[in-house]
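Journal club side-thread
Mid-discussion, someone asked how the predicted structure for our own chain would compare to the paper's figures. Pasting it here so we can look after the session.
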Amino acid sequence: MRRLALTALSAAAVLVPAGAARADYVIDGRGFGHGVGMSQYGAYGYAQREGRDFRWILGHYYPGTNVGRVASARVRVVLRDTRTPKLCGATRARAAGGRSLRLRDTRTYAFSAYGAGKVRVVDTTSKRTRAKLTAPVRVSGGASTCVRGEAINGVRNGSYRGTMRTPNEVGYSETDTRHNLSFAGSTTLPWRIQFSAIVKAISGSPIPVSAGFDIDGDSQLQNDRPAGLGITVGRNNVAHDLEIINALRASRNLPAITPDLIELRPFYNIDLRLTKVLQLGGARHLELFLEGFNATNFLTLNNGIGTITNRTAFTPTTARAARQLQLGARYAF
């Protein structure tokens, strides 16, 4: 059976009536990617087959640019994503508040979250807790520090130069929604009109938060937060988080944040669809449909930017889409 589909207004997801089993669209695409940036296989081919050097390859893929030298800077690389990283070869651990703990490079130490904004340091040999330090904690050693277990790069028990850092990564994920209720159904109305609906009610998601400047002196801004503040706000003790946030803003002569700005914003949505099929004889029929998205026109504000030292921090500036209506037709023959 061949089908011809025509949809008015915008292209959007539709509610499929019960019993629809056939695909309406077949998309066949060809090409060589988006054409932006450097092709890995292309660069490999130029180097291997044509003997091109890196300057020629970069000039080919990035015309109008120059190859030069820049001042050296620190680069932060994630080595392990684990609740309790274990390090060896370290001689010192320095807390965010400045406290310094001397370590033995012949021992292995485990670092784990402890309470709000703390890191527990445990000697794995003696099983003793050496200290509870304010996160993030920077760990340094002699020529190198080793990471126990398999790192993200696939190396097991590898040694690395530079300073290890256990970030303050305690808290709920920004994608965490505690409650998520969805309902979908359809029924037949008089005159054989198909009525379909999807109802959603989702809890608000926590707001990721950062200081907006280098707190721990490592020349990086990522994941820098005041002591005692988790990676997100809005889910746990709002009063506690608000006190820390406003203390930092006060130190920068910024106005205080009000509690309503970090409260979680739930999402409610109702999508409706009416479908009428007109039989035209044989296999031919015309399907008419009217769809309404966010039918109740419920206003859902998106979370504001969680950079504490931003003047408009946590203030919503965007919202979910308002009510939309879509009229369409589909002809099958």
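Post-session note: The CA atoms of residues 158 and 227 lie 30 Å apart.
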